[in-house]
Amino acid sequence: xxxIPLDDIHRLLEMLEAVIPAIxxxxxxxxxxxxxPALSEVVLEVLDWSNxxxxxxxxxxxxxxxxKFVKMRGVVRKKDALKIADRLxxxxxxxxxxxxxxxxxxxxxxxxxxxxxxxxxPFIFSGEQWVEIALSSEVKAKIAVIASLLDSIIEQVSRxxxxxxxxxxxxxERQQLIAVLETALNILKSPMVEKGLLxxxxxxxxxxxxxxxxxxxxxxxxxxxxxxAARIVDFIRTLGG
Length: 241
Description:
By secondary structure, this protein is mainly alpha-helical. It folds into two domains: 6-96, no CATH class; 130-238, Substrate Binding Domain Of Dnak, Chain:A, Domain 2 (Up-down Bundle). It contains eight helices and four strands; from the N terminus they run αβααβαβααβαα. The protein has helices spanning 6-24, 37-47, 63-71, 78-96, 137-159, 171-188, 195-215, 219-238, and strands at 30-32, 75-77, 130-132, 192-194. A two-stranded antiparallel sheet has the order 1-2. The radius of gyration is 18 Å and the shape is globular. The model is unreliable at 50-56 and 99-126 (pLDDT under 50).
C-alpha cells in the first residue's frame, strides 16, 4: 500500500481545489482528458505510477474510466471527471486524518503503441548541465505527466492533416518540434537529464502555444503545449535551475 507524505497530500488537495472549478466551468458536457492534466497528475501520484489501473481500487471508480486519466487520453463526461476529482479529494482528506487506504495502480506502458511520427530533421541546442534525478514520488509523478503530455503532442502534431495555413507550425517547425520532444522523452526515461534540452523543449512548446493563439487554429494542441511548457519549467525548478 502506497502511503502519501503529508506535505504531498496537502499539495494534491490544493491542486484538486483549483481543478474542480475549472472542470465545472467547461462549456460542454464532454471533456478531453488531456485538457485537464492537473487531474491526471493527481491520479498518477495517488496511484504511485506503479501497478495497474485495472486492479480493483477503493476510489470506487470504473477502472476503464480511471485508465483514461492514467494514460491522459480519451474523452469523458464532465460529471465523470468531477466524480473522480471528488473521490480523490475524499481519499486524500481521509489520508490527511490518518485513515483510509487505496489499492490501485497504473497499466504498464511496455505494450503501448508507438505514435506515428514524421521523419525529423536534425536540431541543435546548447548543452547546459547534466543533472542526476532523485526519484521521489513527486518527481516520478511530474515526469509521468510531462511524458504523457509530450507523447500526446507528438501524436497529434504528427497526425494533423489540416491545410498548411491552418497548422500551428510550418512543416519544418513541426519536424523540429517532434525531434526535440522525442529526445526529451528519451532523456526523461534516463537517470540523468540535460537542462539545456529541457529548456529547448520548453521553448518550442511555448512557440507552438503562442502560434495557436495568434493564428486561432488547433486550440486543443495549443493548450497541451502551454501545459507541457509550464510543467517543464516547474520540473527544471525541481532540479535546481
